Structure formats: C-alpha cells, structure tokens
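--- STAGE predict ---
source: upstream dedup step, 1 unique chain passed
mode: sequence only
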Amino acid sequence: MDIAAAIAVAYLLGSIPFGLLLTRLGGTEDLRSVGSGNIGATNVLRTGRKGLAAATLLLDLFKGLAAVLIAWRWSPEAAPWAALAAVIGHCYPLWLKFRGGKGVATTAGVSLALAWPIGLAYAAVWMAVFRLFKFSSLAGMAAAVSAPITALLLGKPEFALPLGLIAALVLWLHRENIARLRAGAEPKVGAKV
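--- STAGE serialize ---
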C-alpha cells in the first residue's frame, strides 16, 4: 500500500501544470496555443516572459524532487518508481486530458532526488549540449539519456531501469523535434516558432 500510495502521490504532484498556471496568472495567452503548445519552460519562454519561464523550470524540477523525497519517506523501494510516476504525471496530466510537457525539468528533479551525482551529471550534460548546439530539445534528450547511464556507472541498477524508461519516454515525446533536427528545421532557443 505504501508503494502504491507513493506512486499515486508522485503522479499527482507531477501532473501540476505549473507552466500553464503561471502564464494564466501572468496574464498571457493560453500556453497551449503558443509555439509547440507544450506546458514546459521552453514554451513559456516563447511567450517572452523570461521570469515565468525560469519559475516554471524551477517548479517543474521541484515537483519531481518532492515526489521522490516523499516516496523515500514512505518506502525507499517506491522512490525509483515514484520518479517515473512524477514524470508521467507531467507528460500526461489527468486534468489536461493527458496532454502535458516533455518531462525534461521534472526528470532533472527526480534524478537529483534519487542520487545527487545523477542530478549533477544530468545538469552538466544539459548545459554542455545546450552551449554547443543551442537546441533545448537536444540538450533535454541528451540529459535524459545520461541519467540511467550515470546510475549504472554509480552501481545503482535499481535506479537505472526507471530512469531508462523515463529517457525512452522523453525521446518518444521529442520525436517531432528529432525529425526537425534531422531536417535542419528545429528552432534554436530564442528563435520565433
């Protein structure tokens, strides 16, 4: 019961659509009608509200962090699966007809909560790829893939499977970005969509 409860709470925490809530409070248009239509920080940035984008990034990260930390308190065995549930909640939120974001910031939060070196590697990979190429999508995918690899390198196979499933989900949700990257049509951060 503790594991099931932790996973349910993690999903509900993950599904809080901070990007949509903040842009509504900030008086901008419906975020789902802007740019990619996603509810994450990158799309919030396309509204021109950098402060709201930064707040979205932090809140999406912290909800993943909180979901895993709460699960640790209930049942340490639940924590890796709560990480997966939180990211699924962000990507497929119940209250938005299962249309959410792509999970990059929330994955950063759950990675950090599972083991700080995984979170540190995630952030380092994201920043390095972003600085080199200026594609948020590419940086997010690379960071997500780095998380299960880092878990294995750290001797944490119990984290590697759920983080691998998260990475697969992040890649799946970026499939249109992958097609645009291959075609040379993916917009860089700061470009109009």
